[in-house]
Design goal:
The longest helix is centred in the last third of the chain and has 20 residues. The protein is globular. By secondary structure, it is an alpha/beta fold. Helix 10 links the parallel strand 8 and strand 9. It has 12 helices and 9 strands. It folds into 2 domains: 132 residues, Rossmann fold, CATH 3.40.50.1370; 152 residues, Aspartate/ornithine carbamoyltransferase (Rossmann fold).
């Protein structure tokens, strides 16, 4: 059987995307049915970055599917220092059935996948966050069963999460607007790819600077931290993002009843106010829960 991996969403076919989303709902609503699906399978996790949702959801998910998981410390492995990434990849392939990586550099994931003979899942890289985007889309589907012509407005840093959302929403007929400071706009190549995909699905992709313009007629407002993990020591000026805070005033400019999304962890009082994230418009913890279900679906897809 040809090896499958989940490194980015742009490498997945529309059929595979639909399969994973459909399966996500099944494992969420019929959990007991899948208890032994991955019995005897072993999942390894290598996290260079701190993690709450990614680590726990993968470990719990693998356990619920009847398999085992093992966290492998980068400090012990010292990839690229103690031994080459390609040697780690080929060794772990002899022990494990699947490997999840959460890394600073996307190149590390590509390198590992090149030499692994087992499926590799991107748990987060500087380029994209495919598992998060899948959970986000699942959450949108729960709230808006007819996603065609739904509008999502993303406010803030055009980061890895935005890249994955662009690659997914542009294929699903969802209108997606990103409002960012010019210096922190989304990756131009990813935007071009998303615009090309949108022509086939009926989506519209818009990149702008004005948050109020972005949220006009929006069904969902999405934000993320202004300074991501690993950027703390950079010269990135958080004050540039001050006009991009998701607060009550900005929310009032969206459609009545618009939902608020955040991939967490949130820096309350910065990119989002406590009032908004704690309001009945917030679905951030639905997103967090759905990480478990889409990742279980991805594991089943890759390992059966």
């Amino acid at each position: 059987m040809k090896k499958k991996s989940l490194l980015t969403l742009e490498n997945l076919s529309d059929k595979t995307l639909d399969k994973i989303i459909d399966l996500s709902f099944k494992v969420k609503n019929e959990k007991e049915k899948y208890y032994k699906t991955l019995k005897g399978k072993n999942l390894g996790l290598i996290f260079e970055k701190p993690s709450t949702r990614t680590r726990v959801s993968f470990e719990v998910g693998m356990h619920q599917l009847g398999g085992n998981s093992f966290s492998l410390s980068p400090g012990q492995l010292q990839p690229g220092k103690r031994e080459p990434l390609k040697d780690i990849a080929r060794t772990l392939s002899r022990y494990l059935d699947c490997l999840v990586l959460r890394t600073f550099s996307h190149d590390s994931i590509v390198e590992i996948d090149k030499y692994c003979t087992i499926p590799v899942i991107n748990g987060l890289s500087d380029y994209c966050h495919p598992c998060q985007a899948l959970a986000d889309y699942m959450t949108i589907c729960e709230k808006s069963p007819k996603t065609k012509d739904v509008k999502v407005a993303y406010i803030g840093d055009g980061n890895n999460v935005v890249n994955s959302l662009l690659m997914l929403l542009s294929r699903k007929g969802v209108h997606f607007t990103v409002a960012s400071p010019s210096k922190f706009a989304p990756n131009k190549i990813v935007v071009e790819k998303a615009m090309a995909l949108s022509k086939k699905s009926g989506s519209t992709i818009e990149i702008c600077k004005d948050p109020a313009q972005a949220v006009c007629e929006a069904d969902y407002i999405y934000t993320d931290v202004w300074i991501s993990m690993g950027e703390e020591s950079s010269k990135k000026d958080a004050s540039v993002f001050a006009p991009y805070q998701v607060n009550g005033d900005l929310l009032s400019k969206a459609k009545p009843g618009a939902y608020v999304m955040h991939c967490l962890p949130a820096h309350r009082g910065q990119e989002i106010t406590d009032e908004v994230i704690e309001s009945d418009r917030s679905i951030v913890f639905d997103q967090a829960e759905n990480r478990l279900h889409v990742q279980k679906a991805a594991l089943i897809h890759l390992l059966t």
